[in-house]
């Protein structure tokens, strides 16, 4: 059972899902969307959000059958001990791999935009140290932190509004230029920046209240993030002409680079700092997920001790991915892994447990 | 006890770790305030760097240091300039980039690439084209008591508000420059004696400088583009009566400007652009007076409407001659008539010259100052 001090409210559950979803993807998403679905990039993002909603339904249906288990403890109940534990390790691997990719992208962008001469290892260690500090706490403490840090999203939206002084809405037209097939393809691409809802598999049982309420919380979190992403994509689409978009790989930052106030000259750096905050919370959340798995297998459910070596693995993974060739490989692996672990496997598990009638109240 | 030991160890280590890789101290930097690019006689690039020096004493005023270097690319000339000065040349405070006329007639993108690529560059710096050489303009050193780079920056800023020159900076022209359906315009600066004049507009086609607009046309262009600044003032000739020259003219402020642009495609693929401009103006100078007479006002409205329509026609003709699609007609086609654009885009420059513009300006006098 989950101890009382570890329980989180439904509101906190919502913020947990939100903060795990917002990661590095936000900066490059508009660029990627424009490349595939042109002026309809924001529609693609919304479609991706809907798809994620369906996946959340699957995850919820699966988790609600085991209201007091995390994924690591309910897997053996569905598939039997050996296979269940193997799958549990596979999930840990997926979580670690995702965290590694997230951090390596973070280090790439930071190294490119602000800290040009700071070595990669220093960036990674500094970020990881902060994340370890948060991830070693219990779920309730993390959730409280995530509630506070969600304020940054509001500030990011406000900062993006400045971009509209240069907006030209005709850049977006004709909206359906790329055709629906491309728009769906774009939606498929937009799924990856939205990754993070898998956190439900681990923290679902920590949530208080009724099952329906928890579904609502997770869906609401996803909706907020989808809207936020779609807003950023839309903003960038009306500010950058189709001709310039292929040259700008981080449009939300680039559009703010030319603005200055009386006191602050570079608004993009403010946006950047908030983004670092958001990446930090996402990293902590993912780090928590993998160390919860290690904790389940090696430390009798105590994840604290596992955080350190989980972080070490993540550090090594992020250090390896310096070469663009390796980053691409990481991306490809991650795409397959995402379909497998976030969509495919939960669906199979759900069907399996439905027919075999495994359930523990 | 353990805690205290731990904390003091942390503090000690942190003290040793002060500093970082990316520190860039202001006292090691020489700040660039303006940059100019010209075509050197042998086809190379002649760059001018205006560096502001902050004197150490409080009594002295800041001084400019101007360096000229020749090289193949902007970056190369910048490195050469860096070799000639003490400390490090830093461009993040840059206020103004000027491009010489002859260089602007070539592709200007290679000059700007460095600004877009460098994460530390100041993208909000203003940019303009200079009649003659940018080097000569910076060589003025000072205008009145103001250092040249600041003077040009402030001058352009105030003229933007007066709807005299387009409001652009390095960042805002980037999306337009890369868009095949629209061309950008820049302020055009001239040297008048020992002063700088910024009231004209330099037109570009694709990345090349192709012509200029006079001060009045420049204002008209901005009105047609629906980019009215805070203040717009014009003086027009309205009659021939009387001996005194000043009595022939009226000066008015444009208080409100409402533009409607319609791109129409006729069956024979002729593109017609209707531009309706409704201006509400206030008279600020009219020595002939008698503005209480309604007939007089109606007549003035008529004359001014005609004058302004003519000015609009003249402006659009000049734009077409320069192939400068400053109003973004191509963009409108791209967005709302993609099939027409598909046929026209290959040779948009000359197809644009065949576009028929129908400007209609309506002037209405709403205020006339303290006297009639």
Structural summary, described in words:
Chain A is mainly alpha-helical and 361 residues long. Helices cover 72% and strands 0% of the residues of chain A. Chain B is of the alpha/beta class and 372 residues long. Helix content of chain B is 34%, strand content 32%. Classes of the chains: A mainly alpha (361), B alpha/beta (372). The interface between A and B is medium-sized, with 29 and 28 residues.
- What's the N-to-C terminus distance of chain B? 89 Å
Please give the largest β-sheet of chain A: none
Number of helices of chain A: 15
Helix and strand composition category of chain B: alpha/beta
Q: Spans of chain B with pLDDT under 50 lasting ≥5 residues? A: none
- Tell me the helix content of chain A: over 70%
CATH topology of chain A: Amino acid/polyamine transporter I
What's the number of extended β-strand segments of chain B? 15
Helix/strand order of chain A, N-terminal first: HHHHHHHHHHHHHHH
CATH architectural group of chain A: Up-down Bundle
Beta-strand residue fraction of chain A: under 5%
Task: Note the main attributes of this structure.
heterodimer, A: 361 residues, mainly alpha, Amino acid/polyamine transporter I, 15 helices, 72% helix, globular, B: 372 residues, alpha/beta, 9-stranded mixed beta sheet, 4-stranded mixed beta sheet, 12 helices
């Amino acid at each position: 059972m989950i101890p009382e001090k570890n329980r989180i409210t439904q509101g906190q559950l919502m913020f947990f899902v939100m903060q795990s979803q917002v990661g590095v993807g936000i900066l490059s998403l508009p660029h990627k969307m424009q490349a595939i679905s042109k002026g309809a990039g924001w529609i693609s993002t919304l479609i991706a959000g809907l798809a994620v909603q369906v996946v959340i339904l699957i995850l919820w249906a699966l988790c609600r059958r085991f209201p007091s288990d995390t994924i690591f403890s309910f897997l053996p109940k569905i598939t039997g001990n050996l296979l269940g534990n193997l799958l549990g390790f596979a999930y840990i691997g997926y979580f670690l791999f995702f965290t590694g990719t997230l951090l390596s992208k973070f280090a790439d962008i930071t190294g490119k935009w602000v800290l040009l001469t700071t070595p990669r290892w220093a960036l990674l260690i500094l970020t990881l140290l902060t994340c370890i500090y948060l991830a070693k706490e219990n779920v309730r403490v993390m959730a409280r932190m995530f509630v506070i840090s969600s304020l940054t999203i509001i500030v990011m939206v406000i900062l993006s509004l400045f971009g509209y002084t240069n907006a030209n809405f005709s850049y977006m037209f004709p909206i359906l230029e790329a055709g629906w097939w491309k728009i769906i393809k774009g939606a498929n691409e937009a799924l990856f920046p939205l990754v993070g809802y898998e956190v439900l598999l681990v923290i679902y049982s920590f949530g208080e209240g009724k099952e329906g309420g928890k579904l609502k919380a997770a869906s609401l979190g996803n909706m907020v993030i989808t809207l936020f992403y779609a807003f950023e994509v839309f903003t960038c689409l009306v500010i950058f002409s189709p001709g310039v978009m292929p040259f700008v790989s981080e449009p939300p930052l680039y559009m703010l680079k030319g603005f200055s106030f009386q006191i602050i000259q570079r608004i993009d750096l403010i946006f950047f700092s908030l983004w670092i905050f958001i990446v930090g919370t996402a990293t902590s959340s993912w780090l928590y997920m993998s160390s919860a798995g290690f904790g389940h297998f090696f430390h009798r459910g105590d994840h604290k001790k596992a955080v350190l070596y989980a972080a070490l693995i993540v550090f090594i993974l992020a250090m390896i991915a310096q070469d663009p060739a390796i980053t691409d490989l990481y991306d490809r692996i991650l795409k397959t892994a995402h379909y497998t672990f976030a969509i495919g496997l939960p669906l199979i598990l759900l069907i399996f447990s439905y027919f075999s009638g495994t359930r523990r109240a | 006890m353990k805690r205290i030991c731990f904390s003091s160890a942390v503090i000690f280590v942190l003290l040793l770790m002060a500093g970082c890789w990316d520190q860039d101290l202001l006292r090691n930097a020489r700040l660039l305030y303006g940059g100019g690019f010209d075509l050197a006689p042998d086809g190379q690039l002649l760059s001018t760097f205006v560096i502001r020096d902050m004197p150490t004493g409080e009594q002295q005023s800041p001084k400019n240091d101007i360096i000229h270097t020749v090289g193949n690319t902007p970056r190369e000339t910048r490195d050469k300039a860096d070799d000639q000065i003490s400390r490090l040349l830093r461009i993040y405070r840059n206020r103004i980039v000027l491009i010489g006329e002859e260089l602007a007639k070539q592709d200007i993108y290679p000059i700007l690439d460095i600004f877009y690529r460098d994460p530390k560059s100041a993208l909000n710096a203003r940019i303009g084209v200079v009649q003659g050489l940018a080097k000569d303009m910076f060589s003025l050193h000072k205008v009145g008591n103001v250092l040249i780079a600041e003077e040009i920056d402030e001058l352009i800023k105030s003229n933007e508000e007066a709807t005299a020159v387009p409001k652009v900076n390095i960042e805002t022209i980037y999306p337009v420059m890369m868009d095949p359906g629209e061309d950008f315009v820049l302020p055009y600066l001239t040297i008048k004696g020992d002063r700088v004049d910024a009231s004209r507009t330099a037109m570009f086609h694709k990345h090349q400088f192709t012509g200029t607009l006079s001060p009045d046309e420049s204002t008209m262009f901005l009105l047609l583009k629906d980019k009215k600044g805070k203040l717009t003032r014009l003086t027009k000739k309205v009659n021939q009566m009387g001996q005194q020259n000043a009595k022939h003219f009226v000066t008015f402020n444009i208080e409100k400007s409402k533009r409607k642009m319609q791109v129409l495609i006729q069956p024979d693929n002729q593109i017609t652009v209707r531009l309706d401009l409704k201006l509400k103006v206030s008279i600020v100078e009219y020595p002939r007076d008698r503005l209480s007479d309604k007939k007089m006002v109606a007549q003035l409205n008529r004359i001014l409407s005609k004058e302004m329509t003519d000015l609009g026609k003249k402006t659009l003709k000049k734009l077409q001659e320069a192939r400068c699609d400053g109003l973004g007609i191509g963009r409108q086609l791209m967005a709302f008539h993609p099939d027409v654009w598909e046929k026209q885009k290959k040779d948009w420059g000359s197809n644009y010259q065949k576009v028929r513009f129908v400007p209609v300006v309506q002037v209405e006098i709403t205020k006339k100052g303290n006297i009639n």
